[in-house]
Amino acid sequence: MYTAAKVKNSLVGLSTDQHASFALQVADFFRQESNLPLLKPLLTNEDVSVVTLSSWVAGEVVDVNSGRELFCPLCNLLDHALPSVRFEVIKPVAALIQPADKDELVRLLVMVADMDANVRSRALRITCMVDDSLIRGMEEHSIWDDVRLLLPETTKTEIEAGLRSNALPCQRFAVGGIARNRYGDDNFLASVRDHFDSEVAGMFDTLPKGKRY
Hints:
By secondary structure, this protein is mainly α. Helix content is 58%, strand content 0%.
């Protein structure tokens, strides 16, 4: 069993290779469904090294079939001070999110405008795969006018306007809308590529297309 104290003490003095090996051991323990709830005290621990490792483990072992015990602790880490922690929890939060979790979904989606480039990239990739039904459930939310750019009924004109927006979330949702719904429209894609900033231009071709990898 891996308690927070055991993890913290075990990490002291480890080389990079030893740290990686230990992290894999911890992940293997939590891959067993019955052990997964025991990850919660690690995710809520005050020690940065414990939270950093446990957030990585969550990213490795939590999927759509996992229980909801970890959902709130993971959501609480979406605004963690460390970019590496924010990066790791995006995927498991997305895996566990349900239609009723509207506020949490907003917190997840707006990470496309995070201060850290790696976090922004991970958030955009996940945004490209969020189910349409979850997006439609946000019609009453304040970010609806921007997030609706992810839906297939959004027009090309609306997407182009989103790409020209001064608001980064709106720009990224427009990019997500292209990747989700218009990736096969070569003429349209060619016409909007000039509106991609350097960050998007460097990653667009590797984004999930059609809401799947």
